[in-house]
Amino acid sequence: MGIEGKDKVKVIDTGAHALSGQLGKTIQRLRKAYNLSLSELAEQSGVAKSIISQIERNETNPTLATIWRLSQALDVSIERVLSVSGDEPFIDKTSKGDTPILTSDDGKVRLGIIGWIKTVEWLQWYDVNADPGGVLDSDAHQRGSVECLSVIEGEFEVEVAGVIQHAKAGETLRYRCDRAHTVRNVSTKPAHATMVCILKAAVME
Fold this sequence. Notes:
CATH superfamily of the largest domain: Jelly Rolls
Strand order of the largest sheet: 1-2-3-10-5-8
Oligomer: single chain
Distance between the termini: 64 Å
CATH topology of the largest domain: Jelly Rolls
Strand content: 25-35%
CATH architecture of the largest domain: Sandwich
CATH class of the largest domain: Mainly Beta
Structural class: alpha+beta
Number of strands: 10
Shape: elongated
Number of helices: 5
């Protein structure tokens, strides 16, 4: 049985509102995953800061062109940005092409964001690949946050508050990341690791 007239308009409006709401949440999660401010995302996407803010607060229905610009700036497919599901799948698969990549300032360390986007505000994990001599400098996270670096290949060095520790393949370093910290590939070949960051963890005195 089809839906006609005012009922059809109501259903369309409801669907549009739900899509817009999911879009806003997705944009905000991706922006925070990249540690981008509204101003920085506006600069990279060419979309006004005020518009992005309205999208995240579900106060506007953006055009397809606007969504495309934001998806390009956030390095994710437009299909993924627009996807809406009432029920979470039991198994979710992300392709290599849909995995956002962060790059260190020296261009030698690459972090693939393999964590679930819905947990980015409290739990993040990354696939880390570093060229020889690659350095990843990070600012302090929230107080009590902890980071774990599990080395798969090569050798990494972690420095926190002047304390330095090394780890080789099969070893894991756990350290407070609520202060500036640095991760380095100190081996003479490419190094590979998995990094997990637990934000807002219990404060460790």
